[in-house]
Design brief:
Structural class: alpha/beta
CATH architecture of the largest domain: Alpha-Beta Complex
Distance between the termini: 49 Å
CATH topology of the largest domain: Spore Coat Polysaccharide Biosynthesis Protein SpsA, Chain A
Length: 285
């Protein structure tokens, strides 16, 4: 019997895109899934989907206790209610390729953890901008690989690897959640081919006028928490490696903000792509 996958999808003002995410689940070749839609704005999304002609018993709905509580608290609500042996996050504005769950489950059997490359898509025109990784990672992901992408990665997790939920942090809780599972698993199996879309929007946090300042505050808070309580990482060595990763991202964000103040008009990804390898390496030290 196929193993059940619990797909976790927080939804806030999602009428413009949640059907696309749900439709991508309905097309999955692995049929044993449930989707926990967590309404974070009080909307009855199951009712709304039925009005659009979409109804399936595998779709479940939960409501956050406070409107706008954010993706981390709503993911934790879904995690507590999930029935599956496997957990798979899916943001309401993203979507899976039809074989994603089937292929990642086959890989995840080795360590309990698997991920695919991400296809970064401009939501305004459906153009593919770039991939999370431009080079093959030799079939596996380790912590060092997180230094080489600035795109949030989507994993499929076995429940046994999840010792703690998503932290109530303003930025980066998904990365910390992934890294804690990675510490438990040792490494993640990796599919070089992108099997999902990560959609980017002009109205997102990354494009706001105060994005650099908000990211700087989030990185500083994360480093403080790592020093104070470890954020659930088991070994001092892993904690230090994670702190080095967050510090690296903090340094990149600071440099990007400085260049923007000097007139740079490109995106963060363009900025990173244009940095000389020697300068990137210096930021890691």
């Amino acid at each position: 019997m196929a193993e059940l996958v619990s797909v976790i999808t927080p939804v806030y003002q999602g009428q413009g895109h949640v059907r696309r995410a749900v439709d991508s689940l309905l097309r999955q070749t692995h049929q044993e899934w449930e989707c926990l839609l967590v309404s974070d704005d009080g909307t009855d999304y199951l009712g709304w989907l039925r009005q659009q002609g979409v109804s399936d018993p595998r779709l479940r709905q939960l409501f956050s206790t406070r409107t706008g509580s954010g993706p981390n608290l709503t993911r934790n609500l879904a995690l507590r209610a999930a029935h599956g042996q496997w957990i798979a996050p899916l943001d309401a504005d993203d979507c899976y390729d039809p074989q994603r769950l089937e292929r990642l489950l086959a890989l995840a059997g080795e360590t309990g953890l698997a991920a695919d490359n991400a296809r970064v898509v401009d939501d305004s025109n459906d153009l593919v901008l770039h991939l999370a990784f431009s080079h093959d990672r030799q079939g596996r992901l380790e912590l060092d690989d997180f230094f080489h992408t600035h795109v949030p990665l989507l994993f499929v997790f076995h429940r046994q690897l999840i010792q703690r939920g998503w932290d109530d942090l303003p930025r980066g809780a998904d990365t910390l959640f992934n890294l804690r599972a990675l510490e438990q698993a040792g490494y993640a199996r990796y599919c070089t081919e992108p099997l999902h879309d990560y959609r980017v929007h002009r109205a997102s946090l990354c494009h706001s006028a105060d994005a650099g300042e908000r990211f700087a505050e989030a990185y500083a808070l994360t480093l403080q928490r790592l020093q104070e309580d470890g954020l659930g990482f088991g070994s001092p060595q892993m904690r230090q490696q994670v702190m080095a990763l967050i510090h690296f991202k903090q340094q990149l964000n600071q440099l990007f903000s400085q260049r923007c103040a000097q007139g740079y008009a490109g995106t963060f990804q363009n900025f990173v792509d244009d940095l000389p390898p020697a300068e990137l390496q210096q930021l890691r030290q």
